Amino acid sequence: MTDFPVVESVPALRARLKDFRNKGEKIALVPTMGALHDGHLSLVQEARRHAERVVVTIFVNPAQFGPSEDFAKYPRTLPSDLEKLASVQADLCFAPTMEAVYPPGFSTRVEVDGPARADLEDRFRPTHFCGVATVVAKLLNQAQADVAVFGEKDYQQLLVIQRLARDLDIATEILGAPTLREADGLAMSSRNVYLSKAERAAAPALYAALNEAARLIGAGEAIEATLARASAALGEAGFLPDYIEARHAKTLARIAGRRDGPIRLLAAARLGATRLIDNLAVTHEA
Ligand SMILES: Nc1ncnc2c1ncn2[C@@H]1O[C@H](COP(=O)(O)OP(=O)(O)OP(=O)(O)O)[C@@H](O)[C@H]1O
Ligand SMILES: CC(C)(CO)[C@@H](O)C(=O)[O-]
Ligand code: BAL
């Protein structure tokens, strides 16, 4: 058992943060839902580059799960999460109770338009970004950190949170950090533990399809035909694709050709009962 410091209430969090601030230390926040893996730990390391103190939040937020999604079975592994946070010298874990986030009578929702209505994740998870925006607005207000770091793995989410912070004048700077991958290319994700052995063997096909499509589009191949082939390749690997699309990297607007870029490819696909997402930048060949 580690004795890594954890606080569960907003007053306890603020008391710790006040100590840091009184010493003139900058604070970085890394919001997560726990079941920590090396991708999360890379966010802690990125956060450390911007602040003396790194606070990791762990809260499985019911409001961002749809009624038929995996809230109940989402992995909850707090003791091993704390060991991992100790191993990367994070400073504090904020693991709020349900009441600390959603007190009785809670009546407020944060709705984001723009990148949250891009017809990507929102098409398949229509209440998801309202739940994310509401909890992230709360976490940002609770901590009032100097910076907060989010993964590019959840690319649409990152743009939604940047828009939320800009629109609501939240002073915390929102930073993105690159996706950490397994050696075979699969993006690390807490949901990878759901994959059977055979599904885990097939799973790198998602990154492979994105990678190949990004290479071809970067080399000037037609976008729509390339994405149709990528989708077919995913099907052959055993995935049921929800979408694989090329969008403007900053706005998620649809694009007609590669000169409308910068382009980001975004995909979501189901492998058995598990839904995986991934995305990749298109870099143009000289
Ligand atoms: N492979 C990764 N590399 C970098 N950041 C990541 C990676 N996976 C997740 N993150 C980031 O970690 C933060 C917390 O994400 P979360 O706890 O939902 O983890 P997750 O692995 O994405 O889980 P899920 O399987 O639920 O999507 C988010 O900002 C997310 O983008
Ligand atoms: C940002 C977040 C912690 C909000 O619950 C979650 O959506 C996640 O883990 O990406
Ligand atoms: N990683 C984003 C959180 C979610 O899928 O609910």
TrEMBL record:
Q: Fetch the CDD domains from UniProt.
A: PanC (cd00560)
Q: Which UniProt keyword terms apply here?
A: ATP-binding, Cytoplasm, Ligase, Nucleotide-binding, Pantothenate biosynthesis
Which residues of this UniProt protein bind (R)-pantoate? 64, 157
**Which Enzyme Commission number(s) are listed?**
6.3.2.1
Record: residues binding ATP: 33-40, 151-154, 180, 188-191
Which reactions appear under catalytic activity for this entry? (R)-pantoate + beta-alanine + ATP = (R)-pantothenate + AMP + diphosphate + H(+)
Family matches, as InterPro entries: Cyt_trans-like, Pantoate_ligase, Pantoate_ligase_C, Rossmann-like_a/b/a_fold
Q: Name one GO molecular function term.
A: pantoate-beta-alanine ligase activity
Q: Where in the cell is it found?
A: Cytoplasm
Q: Which GO terms describe its cellular component?
A: cytosol
Q: Does the keyword ATP-binding apply?
A: yes
Which class of enzymes does this protein belong to?
Answer: ligase
So what family is this one in? Answer: Belongs to the pantothenate synthetase family.
Q: Any additional notes?
A: The reaction proceeds by a bi uni uni bi ping pong mechanism.
Q: In UniProt terms, what function does this protein have? A: Catalyzes the condensation of pantoate with beta-alanine in an ATP-dependent reaction via a pantoyl-adenylate intermediate.
Entry protein name: Pantothenate synthetase
* Species of the source: Methylocystis bryophila
